Amino acid sequence: MPPTTPSELRHVRIQATGPTARLEVDGHDIADQVASYQLQHTAGQPPELLLLLRPTADPVWEGAARVVVGADPDPGPAAAAFLAALDPAETERAVLDRHDLQDGGPHEFVRALLLQLTEWALGKRQPGELEKVAG
């Protein structure tokens, strides 16, 4: 891609289809080089596209970029808030009702509890939501 100056805008096309997207910059498909992207648009300003590259991306990129340096947030406070919000009785009932997680093996209840909490944290099943029965 030719160099970009801050005053120069690039043609960008994003075609998102479910969990995947086609990303083009100046007609060049770059989706296979991008791990994630963020599109931000403030009224009166040109849109800003932030591309987070895959480790396998082409090492040669040219153009102007805004550089942001930061660290991943500490997950501890979010995990603590999530656990503190749970009702102990409802959590116990949910785990005991999950027959698909009970196999009679060592530490069965704790393994089932951790899997249940993981599903809730990922939004796969909400507290109080019953397991769907096939048939």
Overview in brief:
The protein is of the alpha+beta class and 135 residues long.
Give an account of the 3D structure.
By secondary structure, the chain is of the alpha+beta class. The chain folds into 2 domains: 1-70, no CATH class; 76-121, no CATH class. The chain contains 3 helices and 5 strands, in the order E-E-E-E-E-H-H-H. The protein has helices at 76-84, 88-96, 108-121; strands at residues 12-17, 20-25, 28-29, 34-40, 48-53. The protein has a 3-stranded antiparallel beta sheet, with no helix packed on it. Helix 2 (88-96) crosses helix 3. The model is unreliable at 1-5 (pLDDT under 50).
Q: What topology emerges from the helices and strands here?
A:
Layout (H helix, E strand, L loop, with lengths): L11 E6 L2 E6 L2 E2 L4 E7 L7 E6 L22 H9 L3 H9 L11 H14 L14
Antiparallel strand pairs: 1-2, 2-3, 4-5
Helix pairs in contact: 2-3
